[in-house]
Amino acid sequence: MAGKxxxxxxxxxxxxxxxxxxxxxxxxxxDDLSRTTGLNxxxxxxxxxxxxxxxxxxxxxxxxxxxxxxxxxxxxxxEDPLQAVRAFFEITLQRxxxxxxxxxxxxxxxxxxxxxxxxTIAARANEALDFQHARLRTALKxxxxxxxxxDDFAVHITAVNQSLAVMSKTGASRKQLRTVIxxxxxxxxxxxxxxx
Length: 196
Description:
The protein is an all-alpha fold. It has helices at 9-23, 30-37, 41-48, 51-74, 81-97, 106-112, 119-142, 147-169, 174-195.
């Protein structure tokens, strides 16, 4: 349309997501979002709604992007469950090492700030964590673990994965992060061996 500025919604959402991820919801102002997206306030409101609505879109985008990669990593779980879980953790390590994104995890960060956020945003973060747990449980059940063991390891691996993100924000070394992963995969290997 003539007279209307066109922009790439995906690029704007990525910029907003990085801003929220870097500074957190509370410390990100509309001016920050305007600066990082290149959109004025009215364009932000007309395109994405209020700050909560934009944050929810960013959470969904983040969860879908990394969720797809996690799904690909776990796709071989029925043939090689240990390799699948290692590949799952590798996605997290790659994200942590990526210089183009902030340390940590937007979902973990949101979950930790949940008491100060709207119930809708807090619920969306919990949904993302629940989906992560379900994704892992499904993969581990395909690896022929019992229902109980698959669920227990899914809870554990979800918690470890989130803790890696938190540890990265506090400056943990790659060696320390790998040690945490190695202990978790060793426990899983033991459980899988006991089932064979």
